[in-house]
Amino acid sequence: MRATTHEESSIVHSAMHNSNRSLKMWKSYMNIKNFWCALHLNAARSIKQLQAHKLTWTKLLNIVGTQDVPALHRVFQNAKSFKWSIKKTLEMIQDAVNGKYHAKGFSELELDLANIIYDLGGQAALHALHHSPFAFPLRKTLTELQSEYNLRVSTGKTIADDLRHNMEVVLNGEDDVKLVGVTLCIDEVASDGRLSWISTTDDIVGLCHEHISNIESTKMGPSLDVIYAISEAVRDGRVHIEQEILVAALGCNDNKDYGAKPILILPMCLDKLLCSQKGVLINDTLINKNAIQALLDWKDPQDVPRAIKLLSLIPELHTLDWEDMSPSELQTHNAFCLLGEMLEALLQPFINPDYTISEQIISLVKFAHILYALFKKHETAFMPAHLYSDFQCTFHAAIHWVACTKKLDPEHHVLLCLLGDDILERLFGHVRMAGGHSPNVAADEFCQHASAAVRLGDAFYKYPEWEQKPHWLMLKHGRDADHLTPQQ
After folding, report:
1. Which range among 120-134, 145-159, 264-278, 325-339 has the greatest average pLDDT?
2. Do residues 428 and 189 lie in contact, with contact meaning Cβ atoms separated by under 8 Å?
3. How far is Cα 488 from Cα 422, in angstroms, rounded to an integer?
4. Most C-beta atoms within 10 A of its C-beta, which of 130, 174, 229, 326?
5. Rounded distance between C-alpha atoms, residue 170 and residue 184, angstroms
6. CA 118/CA 116 separation, integer angstroms
């Protein structure tokens, strides 16, 4: 066998080298080809997926844009919570449109709004909104929340227990409590004048508190004996059916949470105290309704701002030129001037937002002294004794309010505008709204509506923009409101 020469070995080696190089180039080419093929395949798949997503989103937008989807916002909330795919979300939205899916998970805002709708509009309004695209919760969903606000009307013999129960209701859930002054407001509201039965306590309510001690028991019991006894007592005049309801409520000296919190609901006889029909006697000068009748709009007895404007204008009478007045005219003018000065001292602390607390107190001190001097001179010819007592109690309460608040917390603002019973009048307004704007109700209905009013107050405290403010309490300048509020 012939031996391989050096030249042949070089040729073979070169051929093998070229072969390996070609093989590497081929492998590299195939890798590049595979890469681009995979890239093309992935791009095709991505485009196909994007087209599918686009189609799904188009269907979703078409459903949302052309149909009323019940509880749409809750569907999306659930989609986020349960991590649904867009396809799954589209299916659930379609089921919601077809009535096969009812999205749950009501937010606190929705429950509060549903309570307001129920309290103001009743079951029918809530039912309509439940079957609307808004998909409000049903009445039974709100039952547990509303049970937290069940106030109790007093029969007269269990006042202490009723007070304790109602205080627990209106003050329930107050965890983050700050020390503030509290006002006890008491006022009466007219009632329907009829008896009713409270199933939870088996009590017959609606008898006047003043004479209920003449009745042995107000518990219904298993027979009709109590009803016969009450009927006989009413006929004999030993007890009366309610004519008005006394309401006592707590009001906090706070710039936000100052709504009335009723703690006592008590049926009463009609208060027969009447003001004098003759007028007001000041320095031997009689000022009666004939002197101011033409200045008031009697067609609107609720036009308080008009009356406030009149009272605010009386102090300006002292600017009139009195040199040409007759002696009788001058006497009347002086009486009006004194009355105007007294009324201005009373009104300004409550209607002037520029007054400091010191100016408010000084003004009320001035009012109290003029009031005392006139009452001491003319007694009940000046004003009824109970009205004089009310005015002096207002003055005393203002001084006491400031002293107690500053002792409690020297840095706390004293809101003298919360001293009156405006918060109770506001509560009565909510009670009437909850009763379908019924002017008067029986004691049991008033209790139910007062519970609803407390719920409304709590909701309006959280969402103040939801409450429609009374027309006559919209402050534009000092004479346009009968009382200021902390939010004004």
Report:
1. 120-134
2. yes
3. 14
4. 130
5. 14
6. 5
The closest of 199, 208, 203, 193 to 266, measured between CA atoms, is 208
Mean pLDDT of 227-246: 88
Q: How far is CA 36 from the centre of its chain?
A: 68
Residues 6+ apart with CB under 8 A from 354: none
Q: How far apart are CA 365 and CA 240, in angstroms?
A: 42
Q: Do the Cβ atoms of 149 and 172 come closer than 8 Å?
A: no
Q: How many CA atoms lie within 13 A of 34 on its CB side?
A: 6
Q: What is the mean pLDDT of residues 481-487?
A: 55
N- to C-terminal Cα distance for the chain?
Answer: 121
479 pLDDT band, cuts 50/70/90, is very low
Query: CB of 219 within 8 A of CB of 203?
Result: yes
- What sign has the CA pseudo-torsion 114, 116, 121, 123? positive
Residue 488 has pLDDT above 80, yes or no: no
Dig out the tokens for 327 from the structure: 């002696």
* Adjacent-strand bridge partners of 247: 187, 265
Mean predicted confidence (pLDDT) in 280-293:
62
CB 123 within 8 A of CB 142: no
Please give the residue that has the higher pLDDT: either 83 or 299: 83
The continuous run of DSSP H or E covering 431 comes out as: helix 422-434
Under the phi-then-psi rule, with left for phi > 0, alpha for psi from -120 to 50, and beta for the rest, what region is 237?
left
Range name among 31-45, 236-250, 257-271 with the lowest pLDDT average: 31-45
On the 0-12 / 13-18 / 19+ scale of CB atoms within 10 A, 95 is middle
SS3 266: strand
Token pair of 133 as six digits:
């695209």
* pLDDT tens, position by position, 433-472: 776 656 677 888 888 888 888 888 888 888 888 887 665 5
Identify the residue with better confidence: 16 or 401.
401
pTM: 0.65
HEC profile of 124-172 = HHHHHHHCCCCCCCCHHHHHHHHHHHCCCCCCCCCHHHHHHHHHHHHCC
* Cβ atoms of residues 102 and 78 within 8 Å: no
Cβ proximity of 249 and 423 under 8 Å: yes
Q: Give the chain's length.
A: 488
Which pLDDT score is estimated for 445? 85
Taking the C-alpha atoms of residue 36 and residue 390, their distance in angstroms, rounded to an integer, is 96
